[in-house]
Structure formats: C-alpha cells, structure tokens
Write a structure and sequence with these properties.
The structure is a single chain. With 586 residues, the chain is α/β, with parallel strands linked by helices. The protein has 3 domains: 189 residues, Rossmann fold; 153 residues, TPP-binding domain (Rossmann fold); 191 residues, 3-Layer(aba) Sandwich (Rossmann fold). Helix content is 37%, strand content 16%. It is built from 22 helices and 19 strands. The strands form 4 sheets. A 6-stranded parallel β-sheet has the order 4-3-5-6-8-7, sandwiched between helices. Helix 8 packs parallel to helix 11, helix 9 crosses helix 12 and helix 13 packs parallel to helix 21. The protein is globular. Bound molecules: thiamine diphosphate and magnesium ion. The site of magnesium ion (MG) has 7 residues, from helix 16.
Length: 586
C-alpha cells in the first residue's frame, strides 16, 4: 500500500491478517482474484511463473488453484519463448508472470515475436506502486506500457480497489485484455499489475464474481460488388500466382487451394512454414527461382494473391518486387495493407479461408501453360537437387539431406533462424509434417525455448534443427523441469554464424571470422551433460546415418545430436549448389 496515500487498519480473522483501506474495503487483492476468475472462465489455464517477490500475490493465487497448470522457468527471456511455443501449438492464450524491473524487459524478445507471428500471450508483469517509480527503490522501472510497440494492447490494473466502480473497471480491463489476445487476430497483450504490500498473507478467495465480457465472432462475407470486381479481374488475368506465407496447418485452406491448383493458369507457391503440402503446390521456391534465373518474364504472374504471415525466401521477394505484376490482393483480417512486394492494389480484410470459400467456387477456370511451366521447373529442380547431393562433400547441406531422409513423418519440426530455416526450403517435405519457425522477428534468441514449449504443450515428438550460435544463445532453454522426453534437438555446429560466410558483404570486410561469424570451438556436449540430456555426435555422413535412428528412438530424456560440419566447405557447397542449379537448363 502506498505509504503516503491511504492509511490501513489491520485486524486478524482466522488465519489471515486482513488489511482494509480508508473505505473499509478488505484489501484482498480483489482485482487479482478477478483476474484468476476471468482467466478460468475463459479457459486460460497455463501460466509460466518466473520467481520474484513483487509477483508473489500472483504466484499465491494461481499456483494454489488446481485449475491452473503453473510451470516455473527462472530465465524470463526463455520463459516467454517457452510460453510462445506452448501457445503456438495449443492455439490458445498462455500466460506468463514475472516480478518488477528488468525481469519484465527480458520478456520483450518473445513478446515481439508473438506480435509479428500473431501468437496469443497474456503478459503479466508485477510492478511497484506508481508513486515509487524513479524514487530509487529496487527493481523499479517505468514498466507501464513498456511493450507498447509490439503488443496488441497494454493495460494496468488498479493498484487497489476502493469502490465498486474500481472493481467494475478492473474486471472490464481484464476482459478487454483477454479478448485482445485473440481478436481480431491473435497476439500478445500486456497487463501491468502494481502491487502494494502486503504481498503475502492475504485471503485467496473473495465472494466477488467478475462479469466476463466476450466477443461474438461474426462471419464475414464478400460484398457482391467487390466479388464481381474480383471475378472480372481474375478472368482477365492469364497468369495467377498464390503465395502463402507462414501459417498454421489449415485443411479448409488446403482444400480450396487444391481446387485452384487444377486451373492451368494458376501457380501456388508455399514454404515449409506455410504448412500446406500438395504435389501441385510449388514448395521449394528458391530452387525453382535459381533454375529460372533471369528468364523471369515467362514465370511472373499478372495477378498475385497472398496471405499468411512472413515469407522466408528472400529470392521470391526480390523476384516479385521486380515482376510486372498488374494486380496484387493481400488477404488478412488486420494486416491487409501489408505491401511486401510493392504491387499491392487491393487489401481484403478477412481471413484467407473465408475469402477462399467465398471466391473459389466462383472463380472461372483459366487456360494457358503458366502452371505447367512452373511444374516443369519444379520437377527439373528436384532432379538437379538430387544429382548435386549425390556427390556433394560433407557439409551443412549434406547433413540436412540425411536428416530429412530419416525424419519420421509424425514429427513436428521447428527450424531455428539463420540457415536452418533456409536450408529446409530446399528440400521436398514428406507430407503432414507441421513446421514452425520464429519468423516474426527472425531472432536467434529463443528458438530452442520455443521448440521446448511447443513440445511440452502436447508432449508430441518434436525436432528442432538449430545452428550453433542460436543453440548456445538459448542454452537456458534446457534450464527448467519441463523438458519433454519427446524433444529432439539437432545442432548444426559449423563453428559460428555460417550464414555470414554465404551472404554477400561480410567477406569483403576482412572482419568476417571475428565480427560476423564469431568463430568458436565450443561444443554442445557440456550443455547436454549439465542438463542430464542424452547426447550424440556426428562428424560425417556415415556417423550421421548410423546415429539418426537411435536419435529418433524413444528416450527417458530430451536428446541432443551435435553434427559438426566444416564452415568453409559448407558455405562453399551452398554457393556451388545454387551455381549448379542456375547453370542447368530447365
Ligand atoms: C537475437 C539476434 N541476434 C543477432 C541476430 C543476427 N544473426 C542472424 S543469423 C546469425 C548467426 C547465427 O548462427 P548459427 O545459429 O550458428 O546459424 P548458421 O548461420 O551457422 O546457420 C546472427 C548472429 C539475430 N537474427 N537475432
Ligand atoms: Mg552456425
């Protein structure tokens, strides 16, 4: 309680010391109890706690209530990414709570990722009373709205409830916060919770039943005028391309795209992170574009339709930005004005599956050879890909080839940023493998924690393929008691940031090894030992082929496989791979 705002009188009843304030309202932390009740009412049961004092009231209220599944992860950065992974796989909001101060700031990387990847997180940060901000008190920072640039909404609950209006206001804010985690699209919401002492010893229940405000989802429809306009434009377009960015597996969307893929004038480009697999869909975009090379005219669309989140391929972004596209429609409930390819003409504010359901049945079939030209490139690139890998020396790309040959189809795949998510785009995937990657902000700072959280959420077989810097950066991901034995982590250890050996620029500086690649001799083995995890190592194709079946077999604990690859050869091989494709004929 603010030392100079409201004096409280104390009296003892039963086991609890009850505080009251001037209004005689029992300072039961009623506001916080409403939060628990409303989260319960909305089925938000997962809470990841990072220890602290200021958040003790939350720990007390939630972790003693059997409804809530509370986990403990000390490192707030890792805790938030773990929660992101859980929410990603459950497709439901997950809550995180930490104490005041820099603890809250450590949530920021995952909060930003959740914002751009549209993952529902309820971010609870305990705070000091406002009057103590900037007054030299410990663990006290300007925390209110600290994530405002990358959350759907920020709220601060009243520090104390002094009237029924305070209570109504408190409960209303909580409902708005919970609703904002999923509507109109999913994302993180920040709830700052200033607490006054006492932080302990207050009653954990109250008679107050907060009112929950829910949002009813209405079905959108395409107005006839717009529908007619889109149908006309579709018919006029000889070459239609549909590009799907990152999204969750969705059978409805797949069904409608399959329908469109039978149209000879339509090409459908997907990535592993689009989670859409079909023989008619062009999966390995970079491979195809390398083969097309400068002959883009014959392969560029005049109508582009896009939806989903971030697109991994840099090549397709530059191809489409250069292409003579006449019309581009982007479909998204919120980000419908995203002009990634600089050709946007119509933003359609609705969900892709509802748009496809309304539009595809009315889209007249086209003519021509646009689809067959792309399919020919696709098939040819597959053959060249195989031919190249048959004789390639031990390197990152050969390691990926071995991994994907052995990857059991029931696994969920997580791809760390930097080259792992890019190598994966070069391979044809066995169907139905769910694929995730933190492409919202493309950071290397939480890939392992995210995969660990996603795996924990459904306790399903999960493989993370990560680079070595990303692995060491997030080695705290293993520092908790919630690691599923279904988790498999492959570290491609090329002794540094191999991507900087591949992209143009760093080589020309003379500073590559130290300041870009951050060359090192560190092994993942001590991290496996520190966390009592099974560990395997492979230094060449033969060892890798031998160890993969064991690696994927059941185990008591999560398992780490470190694959050691030669940095120079690996980047050279990737460059050679693209040279080999681009000098081949379609
Ligand atoms: C948090 C964060 N810091 C820095 C970067 C810049 N960055 C992109 S890739 C990369 C190197 C990653 O190395 P590694 O994980 O070993 O993957 P590799 O490039 O070898 O495949 C870095 C530092 C980033 N994406 N995210
Ligand atoms: Mg590396």
């Amino acid at each position: 309680m603010g030392r100079n705002r409201i004096e409280s009188t104390n009296h003892v009843s039963g086991f609890f010391e009850i505080n009251t304030d001037l209004c005689g309202m029992e300072n039961l932390k009623t506001g916080l109890l409403s939060l628990a009740k409303l989260m319960k009412a909305r089925g938000i049961k997962h809470l990841i706690v990072s220890p602290g004092s200021r958040n003790a009231p939350v720990i007390n209220v939630f972790c003693k209530d059997p409804f809530f599944e509370c986990l403990v992860i000390v490192d707030e950065r890792s805790a938030a990414f773990f929660a992101l992974g859980m929410a990603l796989n459950l497709q439901k909001p997950v809550a995180i709570v930490c104490t005041s101060g820099s603890a809250a700031l450590n949530y920021a990387p995952a909060v930003a990722e959740a914002f751009y990847q549209k993952v529902p997180l309820l971010v609870l940060t305990a705070d000091r009373p406002v009057e103590w901000i900037d007054q030299g008190d410990g663990q006290t920072i300007r925390q209110k709205e600290v994530f405002k640039n990358y959350v759907k909404a920020s709220f601060e609950l009243p520090e104390s409830i002094n009237s029924s209006d305070d209570l109504w206001y408190n409960d209303r804010l909580i409902s708005e916060a919970i609703n904002a985690t999923t509507f109109p699209d999913a994302g993180p919401v920040h709830l700052n919770l200033p607490f006054t002492e006492p932080l302990y010893g207050f009653r954990l229940e109250s008679d107050h039943q907060p009112k929950s405000i829910e949002i009813s989802i209405v079905k959108q429809t395409l107005p006839d005028v717009l529908l007619e306009k889109l149908k006309a434009r579709w018919q006029q377009s000889k070459r239609k391309m549909i590009l799907v960015g990152q999204q969750h597996p969705d059978h409805q969307t797949k069904y409608w795209l399959e329908m469109l893929s039978a149209d000879p004038s339509v090409v459908i480009l997907t990535e592993t992170t689009s989670n859409l697999d079909h023989p008619h869909f062009i999966q390995t975009i970079d491979r195809c574009l390398a083969l097309i090379g400068s002959e883009i005219n014959a392969y560029e669309p005049d109508l582009l339709i896009s939806f989903g989140g971030h697109v991994v391929s840099k090549k397709v972004k530059s191809f489409l930005r250069k292409a003579a596209i006449k019309t581009h429609w982007h479909i998204d409930p919120v980000d419908f004005q995203k002009d990634t390819f600089q050709h946007l003409s119509i933003g359609i504010p609705m969900s892709p599956e509802v748009f496809l359901e309304s539009f595809v049945p009315l889209a007249l079939k086209g003519k021509g050879d646009f689809a067959s030209k792309w399919q020919a490139v696709y098939a040819r690139s597959k053959a060249i890909h195989r031919e190249y890998l048959n004789s390639a020396p031990w390197s990152d790309i050969v390691a990926f080839n071995e991994i994907f040959k052995e990857l059991p189809s029931h696994y969920t795949l997580h791809l760390a940023n930097s080259t792992p998510v890019r190598y994966a785009q070069l391979f044809d995937f066995v169907s139905e493998i769910k694929c995730f990657s933190n492409r919202g902000t493309s950071g290397i700072d939480g890939c392992t924690s995210t995969a660990a959280g996603a795996c924990f959420a459904k306790d399903e077989p999960t493989l993370l393929i990560t680079g070595d810097l990303a692995f060491f950066y997030d080695s705290n991901a293993f520092w908790n008691n919630h690691l599923s034995a279904q988790l498999r982590v492959i570290v491609i250890n090329n002794q540094g940031g191999g991507i900087f050996r591949f992209i143009d620029g760093p080589q020309t500086t003379g500073l590559l090894e130290n300041y870009f690649e951050a060359r090192h001799q560190t092994s993942a083995k001590p991290i496996a030992e520190l966390n009592q995890l099974r560990y395997f190592e492979a230094n060449n194709s033969k060892e890798l082929k031998n160890v993969l079946p064991q690696f994927f077999s059941p185990s008591e604990s999560a398992v780490i496989l470190e694959i050691k690859t030669p940095p120079e050869v690996s980047s050279e091989q990737l460059k050679e791979y693209f040279r080999f494709i681009s000098t081949s004929k379609v």
